[in-house]
Amino acid sequence: MKSSGRGSTRSGRRSALPQGPYDPAAEPESPGLHGLVVRVHTDDNRHETFDCADLPLPGWQVPIAQAMAWRAGPAGGLGTQSSARSTWKTVVRWMRFLAALPKPPTNPGKLRAVHVKAFLHRDDSKIANREVSELQLLFAAPSMQPLLSDAAWDALSLRLPEKRRKDGVPGYSDGELARLLAALRSASVAIRRRIRAGEELMERSRSGPETLTDGDRALGGVLAEMAVTGSPPRPYLHTSERRPYRRAVASHLFLTREDLPPLMMLMAALAHRNGETVKELPVEHRILEGRAVELTIVKRRRGARRWYETVTWEIGPKGRELHYPGGMYLLLLDLTARSRVLCDSPMAISIWSEQDGGHAREHVAPYLQDLRGPDLNLSGWARDRALLADPPPGQEPMALELSFNRIKTSMDVRRTKRLGGHLPSAARSNTMPVLFRNYLSGDPLITAWAAEVMTEALDDAEEAAVAAHQRTLNAAGGALRIVTGPVSDRALVAAGLDAETAKRAMAGELDTGWTGCTDHDHHPLTGEECRITFLDCFHCGNCLITRTHLPRLLELLDALNARRLVLSDDDWWERYGPAWAAIRRDILTKFTPEERAAAEQEKTADTILELVENPWDQP
Q1: Whole-angstrom Cα distance, residue 293 to residue 313?
Q2: What is the rounded CA–CA span in Å between residue 554 and residue 534?
Q3: Three-class SS of residue 282?
Q4: C-alpha–C-alpha distance, residues 509 and 517, integer Å
Q5: Crossing angle for the helix pair 125-138 and 81-99, nearest 10 degrees?
Q6: What does the pLDDT look like over 267-320, one tens digit per residue?
Q7: In what order do the strands lie in the sheet with 37-41?
């Protein structure tokens, strides 16, 4: 037993007490319902307060407050600050609409279906549908639904027209993306050089001021003081001149709002993440053997308890950090280090932002309280740097429109192409359906690439079928006997048939399914009676084809093409590919366009293919 600590107490000896008076910490304000005030603590660790006492129609205030508290609670489904705000705005519009009616329902029990229908059929049907959908979820609260009449609840529960799915935002072309990434890296390098130059000037003013000019020595002293206070000097200048001066001085050591567009856009591009994730990048991380950085990021709209994901980003070799997500993340932490200390932020994005008041408010984490944060004006940043989009043919180039969605789409498209279109591997920050529907589907680059891949695959399959046909043909006689032009005994004899065989061919006695056979009793490969199917006739040296066979061959092609709709590509090419290739490559090309056109007029629906295949082979 120790002589001090918890085990040192005994009968007659008092326990050790802490020095000074006891001052209990104030309990944090709990979320939930407090009278008519709803305090919300959302899953993204943000707080909102909604005061229902400001709503019209007092008979609705308590039920609305209870419903909002339930909707923002664990079972309600409002997981983000923005969704809670959206629902509250709908509530405000709903209450104002009811209050403006000639005879408003003074409480939920007096609500009628006609009131709901009037709210639904306002000017903008799209907004009304969305708002009624939100009211359906809100009024499903256990405290609200029993107060409504059956007719009012039926009107609220009416199935609304489904929202038309928006097409995915197209990404940038190869040229646009190359120019954009080059501009983002160039701007990021300039920001890094600027702040490192300010740090170096500050250190030189401390260690060797005699080596500096008078102007640099004075600026170094200002920077040294600003590094401690966090506030640039406030000279006696007009407001229009003082603010640019203070911003210029602060930019020597701190990031400003003007620095955010290139840094955040480049981070989003390298990490293949959306803007919300970049805004909420945490400070806490772990370096893995100097080669990668591990951190936990936020990916919203994934469902309850699935927001957080641990990622590992490569740092990259020295001098190439701005080409790797880990290197870019560490650069962000380095550039924002001083501001983060001054505003005590757990988020990586922290900047100097002049506010009214003392210097303690000048350093902020702009997205800590609200993801909307400051307006980045991404497209304005692109216009200032003369970044142009690829112009349509015959038109003048226009400024490139920037957005986080477009650059993420562009990077997702290129990763998908690099992985050969394999969606399970390409789906990094989204599920496969979301990746395809919202990012890949409809993108011109991915559409053109997919068409190119399909064309190459079809070409490869056709070449393989032609090769298989040629190998079989070489083993079974060497060449098809194709007679073009008018069919006569003389033409058939000239093609190599004896007079008797030519006479039988003219009489149609040698016809099989789609062609003719010059010697059914002796197959060229076996020397025995032929036992192959009619589809294999196209690879046999005994095969005879004349102009009279063209309509049936065209009928067969139509039937084979119809089979593509019910068979997989692999099965179709394996079963019908060689015959299809023989007809397209070796037979139809021997006849003139006029002969093929005449055969098109004579063809009917094919019925032979159904007969020559075994029943168990039917697709």
Answers
A1: 5
A2: 15
A3: strand
A4: 9
A5: 100
A6: 999 998 888 889 989 999 999 998 999 999 887 765 555 678 889 999 999 889
A7: 32-34, 37-41, 47-51
The pLDDT assigned to 26 comes to: 47
What is the pTM for the complete model shown? 0.63
Amino acid letter, 165: R
At 28, the pLDDT band (50, 70, 90 cuts) reads very low
Q: What crossing angle do the helices spanning 81-99 and 113-120 adopt, rounded to 10°?
A: 120
Chain-centre distance for alpha carbon 230? 40
Q: How many helices (H) and strands (E) does the chain have?
A: 23, 11
How confident is the model over 479-492, as a mean pLDDT? 80
- Report the amino acid identity of residue 478: G
Alpha carbon separation from 270 to 189, 408, 409, 552 (Å, rounded)? 15, 9, 12, 58
Burial 520-559 (b: 16+ CB within 10 A, else e): eeebbeeeeebeeebbbbbbbbbbbbbbbbbbbbbbbbeb
Q: Which of 176, 225, 185, 182 is nearest to 202 (CA)?
A: 225
Cβ contacts of 331 within 8 Å, gap of 6 or more: 188, 192, 321, 322
For 134-146, what is the mean pLDDT?
A: 87
Read off the tokens for 302.
């994934």
337 in helix, strand or coil?
helix
Paired residues of 286 in beta bridges: 294
Q: How far apart are CA 548 and CA 554, in angstroms?
A: 11
List of residues 6+ apart from 434 with CB closer than 8 A: 427
> To the nearest 5 percent, what fractions of the chain are helix, strand and coil?
55, 10, 40
**Running DSSP on this structure, what letter comes out for residue 24?**
P
- Give the DSSP per-residue string, 498-521: -HHHHHHHHTTTTB-SSSEES-TT
Mean pLDDT of 84-93: 88
Q: Please, are residues 97 and 135 in contact by the beta-carbon 8 Å criterion? A: no
Integer Rg of the chain from CA: 39
What is the phi/psi pair of residue 364, to 5°? -135, 155
Q: How many CB atoms lie within 10 A of CB 132?
A: 20
Q: What are the backbone dihedrals phi and psi of residue 351, each rounded to the nearest 5 degrees, phi first?
A: -140, 165
Residue count of the chain, please give it. Answer: 619
190, 159 contact by CB (below 8 A): no
pLDDT digit string (tens) for 377-429? 888 898 888 888 888 777 888 888 898 888 888 888 888 877 776 666 666 66
CB atoms within 10 A of CB 58: 12
For all residues of the chain together, what is the average pLDDT?
A: 81
